[in-house]
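The protein record quoted for completeness.
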Amino acid sequence: MVFRSICTIFVPMKKGLVLEGGAMRGLFTAGIIDVMMEAGVEPDGLIGVSAGAAFGCNYKSRQPGRAVRYNTRFAKDPRYSGLRSLIKTGDYFNAEFGYHIVPKEYDIFDTEAFEQNRLVFVFVCTDVMTGKAVYHQMDRVTFDELEWLRASASMPLASKVVEVGGRKLLDGGVADSIPLAYFERIGYERNVVILTQPEGYVKEPNRLMPLMRLALRQYPKMIEAMENRHLMYNQELEYVRQAEREGRCLVIRPDEKLPIGHISHDPENMRRVYEIGRRKGKEHLDQIIDFYSNHNA
């Protein structure tokens, strides 16, 4: 009789963090991830969209508090954002000041910590020529990499098309608003998903589509993506709910609609939304830790 031994190679599940966008609603997300950072929670990878990317980069640089700090500091500064910037530069949020001056001179981004941290940091942009999602992994902090990051958060109508890496890009939320399915496809099997809309939210067609069609008339595929965005978003919400029911992801969302719009110049309102996020983060912290600690199960 021949006996055969079977060896099973154990490969631990990778822990992911998925951050939806939502412009200033992203301060809710910032509050949650700051609590996670302060508690030493370390996922293997993070994927962010729009504000989820712009604020999520601070997880890799290990700088809790930074997102709310510079947003409140410069909330009323015309160098940072406003109609003057939109008219003068084509970007409501001033690209040069916000992405290249603030992190170097006013609220220093820890480039060394970012580049040494093994956390995989990915974000989503939308290619305006194809209307499709582009997934970009950022490992270093260079001018071009910051332009990629800016592209992810560049909202149509409020931003010019960003040209970098041979592509023309805008807001990643147009093509893939909640990239849980993508992160699962590349190997992240245990994901915490942070949403910025409450349970039961249903996205409606964009009422600004006539303006979108005019502003993006050179990019018909982008217009098509914008027209279908609400359908894509609602499908992705259902995908998240199904993953949540199956235990593949842990979802954290606000209890009710957040008291802030896409754009805000009110520092107190920004802090209020951030504190809502911090409270939600503390409320779910033990659950997050348990969910990640069971990732080998």
Q: What stands out?
A: Residues 1-10 have pLDDT under 50 and may be disordered. The chain has twelve helices and eight strands. The beta strands are 14-19, 45-49, 120-127, 133-137, 162-164, 167-171, 188-194, 249-252. Residues 121 and 138 are 6 Å apart (CA to CA).
